[in-house]
């Protein structure tokens, strides 16, 4: 049975990182070129959890781009910001939406997912959901979120230990996160 990440688990992972490393992880992702990367979409209300999500993706071979602190973007949100973000999403190899209950209130998150959906095949787009508690997962299936594979923790046939994987809940099939990232190359 796949297990969704929880906000508490991700906070614990962030707390385990050296404070300097926390900042470096996000800054490195912001300096990264979007071309050939994994574009990590997120709500600004979830910034505190980004170091953990970025670290999980990087540990599985991703080169992560995040727009937080990206100096190449306009200093104030404008149509130029949208044009630049669209170009970065198209340039990225894969697109991961870090989705929480707070994401639905973002103006940018659904728009970024729509751009990725149009620019990439469904095989190159995944949702990384984080839930308040392990039993509150229904919101991850609503509307457009239910269309995409999810990054979850669990046991996968052929592996002796639990691992991060990309799970298609509709087909109840999965593959390792590392393999998904590599196959999208």
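^ structure tokens above, recovered residues below v
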């Amino acid at each position: 049975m796949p297990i969704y990440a929880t906000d508490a688990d991700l906070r614990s992972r962030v707390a385990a990182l050296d404070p300097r490393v926390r900042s470096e992880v996000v800054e490195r992702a912001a300096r990264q070129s979007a071309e050939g990367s994994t574009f990590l979409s997120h709500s600004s209300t979830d910034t505190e959890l980004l170091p953990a999500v970025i670290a999980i993706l990087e540990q599985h071979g991703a080169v992560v781009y995040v727009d937080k602190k990206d100096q190449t973007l306009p200093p104030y949100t404008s149509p130029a910001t949208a044009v630049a973000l669209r170009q970065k999403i198209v340039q990225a190899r894969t697109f991961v939406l870090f989705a929480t209950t707070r994401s639905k209130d973002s103006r940018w998150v659904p728009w970024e997912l729509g751009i990725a959906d149009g620019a990439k095949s469904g095989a190159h787009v995944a949702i990384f959901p984080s839930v308040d508690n392990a039993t509150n997962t229904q919101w991850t299936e609503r509307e457009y979120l239910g269309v995409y594979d999810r990054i979850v923790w669990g046991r996968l046939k052929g592996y002796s230990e639990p691992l991060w994987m990309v799970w298609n809940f509709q087909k109840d099939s999965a593959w390792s996160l590392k393999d998904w990232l590599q196959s999208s190359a």
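The helical segments are 7-16, 19-31, 50-59, 79-91, 109-119, 177-183.
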